[in-house]
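Just wondering, does anyone understand what follows?

——
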Amino acid sequence: MPLIIGLTGGIGCGKSTATKYFAAHGIDIIDTDEIAHELTLPGGKAMSLIKKTFGTIFISKDGSLDRGKMRELVFSNPIFKNKLEAILHPLIYQEVVRRIRLATSAYILIIVPLLLEAKAFHELVHRILVIDCTEQLQISRTIARSKLDEQEIHAIMATQVSRKERLTQADDIIINDQDLDHLHKQIEILHLKYLALSRNKLNKPV
């Protein structure tokens, strides 16, 4: 199995931006948010069970998940959050494993916002890379890019592990609190490091 890096970070920390730089180096990217989106499109593998569990009120007219309504529900009550994750996480995991088998790059980057909360994904990766910034930056960036208000952002942040816990569990950290050039330089260093680790992993005797 190739070297697998699990990339995580709080909302608004810049996971997507960092991912683009790794992809520019030819690294295979597996994005669990993207997979979750595919699973909840019309006809997606998760939709029949979501409809059965939560009812048609959470299904849009086109047959996809009504993400706005579902977000309000799961952030208002952890029981519903757990029910949704019980449907999605096994399906996401299956697809991640399938894509790992198809990957051809020197190492693989898996983007998992809840990497530290989801044991199965945590155990799948060899190293944890955390994209970090201040909570104030998280909030301002998320407001700028989305329709979420500050209260909704705080609700999302409350469901994620603390910044301190993320940094404690990280093998590698990117501080994303300056410009894109600063971010790119850190990624360049890590990319070379991961290439070296990947070569060492391949050269180890079985």
